[in-house]
Fold this protein.
Amino acid sequence: MKRNRKRWAALPLLLFAQVAALAAQPQWLEDRQYESWLELEAADQSYADRALEIGRHQAFLEFLGQGSVVFREGPVDALELYSSETFRGAELSWEAHYIDVSRAGDLGLSAGPVVIINPGEDSGRDFFGHLISIWRKQGIRWELMADLGVFIPGFLSMDVQPDFNDTLPVLAETAPVHVAMADPEPMATLVESDHTFGRSINFRGGRRALLRWGMENSRVYLPGMAPAVGAEDASTVYGAFLDTRLEATLPVNLNHVGGYLAASQELGYTYGTMSEAGADGESGFRANYLRLWRLIGTGEWRIAVEVLSPY
């Protein structure tokens, strides 16, 4: 800070005021993000409660937004699927253990344990996993835009609660406002980052690719295991997961299908499929992906949350 004082003293008064305003932003941004974080927490809990009250089918129709997707063998139109008279699906019960939200308060993610409830009387045959959801705020209403689950063997406790302190390290890594707003085509840059990460898996392997493209506080959700948090743990389990499923000589193809960017341009998500070259319904690796990105101080997009669910 002492090094900066002499330089700041030479700045024109107006520029000094602008620099001072940027320096003062983190606290009010944190306060505003916390308010948005609480709003999203309440929306996610309301969604979970409604699913128990009126059933998953009707609750989804209440909360789904235009352009929302769920994942089957690739992403599909969620409203079209859930509006179908022939739709059948198991009931779900879930709770959030982690929430992230944009500075604009218009885009966010919730993640936590889920129970897929057995329709019969044998509760011992319920299935467990983690449900990761993307939310977008339209006016005063939070709408569900994407849902992807990963499943694990055994039992998961639903006695969890999200904590804003878990989100603060991610916010600390995130680019300041003037950096985030500097890119004239931020969505194009985000999509290119998505494709580049896919190509990086082929050149670097899964572990090194995520080390390069993941945040220091990245999170990974994969089938059969607990969430991995932090660059080292997340990249290690991500690499091990892909190593057990991929043929070393076959390239991985990433098919980017869609995504969205927050108005504040520092948070976005992408989704699509990843597959081995030549994979089909009979053999080979194929997986849905859902990826939350944050822009860091260097102006690069980095992965905050990575979800892979093979099909």
Summary: The domain at 173-310 is CATH 3.10.450.50 (Nuclear Transport Factor 2; Chain: A,). The chain has two domains: 27-164, 173-310.
